[in-house]
Amino acid sequence: MTKQKRGAAVAPKVLEAQHRNETTRRFKAFIEELSSPEIASLFTPRNYELLYTYKRSGIKIHPAVDSEFRSSELKIMKNLFAAYLKNQTQDLFPGLPNTNLHDALTLGVPLLVFLVDAYNKESPIADRLRAHFGPVTDVADAYTSLGERIQFLMYVFGIMFSTYENGLIYACNDENSKASILLNSVVVKRHLPEKRTFKVEGYGREAYRVAWFDLDEPLKKLRYIELSQAQLGIPNASPNVPLKVYIQKHALQRITDRLDSIKLTTLQLPLFDSINEPIAHIVKPGKFLLEMRLNKVKVGYFVATVEGNALLIRTFLFITNNGTPEGHRLKEQTGLQMLDKKYLAIDKLSSFVAREVAENAEIRAIFEKADCGYLFDKELQTYTAIEFSNRHTPAVKLPAYIANHNLEAEWAEMPTV
Predict the structure, then answer these.
(1) 311: closest CA among 231, 375, 218, 253?
(2) How far apart are CA 44 and CA 300, in angstroms?
(3) 196, CA 20 to 30 Å: which among 148, 150, 235, 313?
(4) Superkingdom, according to UniProt (predicted)?
């Protein structure tokens, strides 16, 4: 064998040895963090060898059999899921330090398997480990709790990549994997919602059928909404004529513009829930306002019209916009017109989660009088990225603006720069 060939043959063995040594070092550091150097020293080289054999490779993400994903998409998902898990913490054992979920998954699960094996075989160190980590029931509970948490986060992670245009992404534990430890094997399924083009006012309007995952068979199909005329409050409704619900691209864009402190992916489930259990207001025959709610907090309305056998959501109005009951009351009480609201940025959610507005009693009183007080509900803060609470907004000028009667007509005449 030539020197070059011998080197090529040796290289993989060297890499494997280096990987084994690095993994052993990580296991030792992990056990020390959960316990102490003394407990970690109880593990013999043979024990660390067993931990190495129990350890699976890192996060794996692959598509369902009937789904197509680009390799670049899967790579991004894998890297982001790993980073996502590193930012989440988990207590594997009561009373012991927390660990990040990535370490809990890649190092903690092999440790749990090792502990069960050591207890069952009455390893020489079993009693010491049992005294520190708890009995086998605690170990089993830790594995169950971790598994449930990881599966929920897989579902949330899939939602983060979901859009009507590119598909709703369902991510879950890969139960078909041949691996003995399954929690790090993720399967992703792309569901493309039904599309339809409507002829409205002489123009073609592309819309998506409003959908969410069918949680009984989430890898197989979506759940679509059909509303009866009675659910929309139509007088003398025909109970057996369901309307399929579609949403225009324009409406999705308006949600992004007006609920601007919340990611659209986060809004898709509340969107579905709000329409699935509609609170409808009839504007005129065939035209409706459907309330949009975030965990029961009303933030605006979908404007929808009946188009044949379908209900088409045309746009989205923030609760202060002209065309809503609250927006009308706000106009009556303050004199604010559409351009005034735009100038003051009170036509979008970010202004109401900003601390300088949310903590201003005078501003709050103005909106509470117009029945918009729930825009300051703390529940909305949980949906919002933290940086929005510290942003400056023109809305702080509202009391002085009203007092000076500096309304739409004057503002429209202001010179533009």
Answers:
(1) 231
(2) 62
(3) 235
(4) Bacteria
Residues 214 and 259 in one domain: yes
290 contacts 305 by C-beta, under 8 angstroms: no
Q: Rounded CA gap, 104 and 306, in Å? A: 51
d(CA 381, CA 232): 30
Burial 86-119 (b: 16+ CB within 10 A, else e): eeeebebbeeeeebebbbbbbbbbbbbbbbeebb
Specify whether 229 is located in the same domain as 103: no
Contact 42, 114 (CB under 8 A): no
Least confident piece of the model among 177-191, 259-273, 353-367: 177-191
Mean pLDDT on 260-277? 93
Q: Is the dihedral of CA 237, 242, 243, 245 positive or negative?
A: positive
Is residue 112 within 8 Å of residue 143, measured between CB atoms? yes
Based on the structure, what is the number of domains in the chain?
3
Q: Are 317 and 259 in contact (CB under 8 A)?
A: no
* pLDDT 10s digits, 47-63: 999 898 887 667 889 89
Q: What is the pLDDT of residues 197-234, one digit of tens each?
A: 999 888 899 999 999 999 999 999 999 999 998 888 88
* Chain center to CA of 116: 35
How many beta carbons lie within 10 A of that of residue 273, not counting itself? 16
**pTM for the model:** 0.84
Write down the H helix ranges in 161-296.
249-258, 264-276
Report if residue 8 sits inside a domain: no
Q: How many CA atoms lie within 13 A of 141 on its CB side?
A: 10
Give residue 381's domain range.
325-413
11 in a structural domain? no
Q: Which two tokens stand for residue 90?
A: 């988990």
- Identify the bridge partners of residue 297 per DSSP, sorted by sequence position: 294
Amino acid at site 10:
V
Which residues partner with 306 through β-bridges?
A: 311
Is there a single domain that holds both residue 258 and residue 373? no
